[in-house]
Amino acid sequence: MNKNLLILGAGGHGRVVKEIAEAMGVFDKIDFLDDENSDIAIGKLSDNEIFAGEYSYAFPALSDSELRMTWIARLEENCYTTPVLIHPTAYISPSASVYPGSAVLPKAMVNTNSVIERGCIVGLGAIVDHDTFIGFGCHVDCGAIVKAHCMVKANTKIDSGAVYKRDDMPTPQEFMEANGFSFGVGV
């Protein structure tokens, strides 16, 4: 398997993701696919299938969380590995879990027993305290704090500087539904 990375999206977040990938020092080649920034991209998003043999890794650096989640699934169907990208200056507890398609930006912190699900962004200097669950596609923006023992439902954005606490949590049913579970009546 080669160590080449395709980044889908060459906008602001895509450029941040590229710098994180470079700082990690594990990829041999990093390029963009983008539908609008053709001056720095080697092709459009739909061209990803063409590059599947040349790039083993692909990462959707798209600001829309639902689109990010859709692209994670599509890239994996096209035989790409979706990496976890963690800047070397971020702190990730050894007991925390960060899942594929997530990016943890510089100076961010993910504390003990916390879970960062697929397709999340933990922004510059953000803090996710201990025993916290961040659902699929969430964005904990720059400097935001998610306090201990919280659950954040899928596709939630916590704005820069905000403090997310237990009073902000969804009901158990809202949380489960947002994370792909249904409560249909029947056998």
From TrEMBL:
TM stretches of this protein: none
Annotated InterPro entries: PglD_N (IPR041561), Trans_hexapeptide_repeat (IPR050179), Trimer_LpxA-like_sf (IPR011004)
Domain PglD N-terminal: 4-74
Domain of life of the organism encoding this protein: Bacteria
Record-linked PANTHER family: ACETYLTRANSFERASE, UDP-N-ACETYLBACILLOSAMINE N-ACETYLTRANSFERASE
Protein name: PglB
Species the sequence originates in: Dethiobacter alkaliphilus AHT 1
Lineage summary: Bacteria, Bacillati, Bacillota, Dethiobacteria, Dethiobacterales
